[in-house]
Amino acid sequence: xxxxxxxxxxxAKFISWMTGKSGGATRSWSIWWSEENSFYSKMxxxxxxxxxxxxxxxxxxxxxxxxxxxxxxxxTLNKPAIxxxxxxxxxxxxFVFWWLLSMVEHLMPYPIRR
Length: 114
Description:
The protein has six helices and no strands. The protein is mainly α.
């Protein structure tokens, strides 16, 4: 349940964490951010370049999708090759399969689980 005193205490802790400057990752967002992204500073320049290229590729794809008529297409003229009911049924089957595997995961050997 959401009790007002618990919500306000959590909010105060969150604001304290966001504005904190010292005390480790559990007490400061800026230190947490620095620790989470510290591996970038140790990467060689070639690896950083690949990250930038990949980011530009993703942004270009997103911009292309946003500017296209892909999401504005009239489906009455272009009947989809796969029906919505089939897609929904496939998703449900996959979730059921995932749930079944999670139920027997502890019985599987470690290499198969990973």
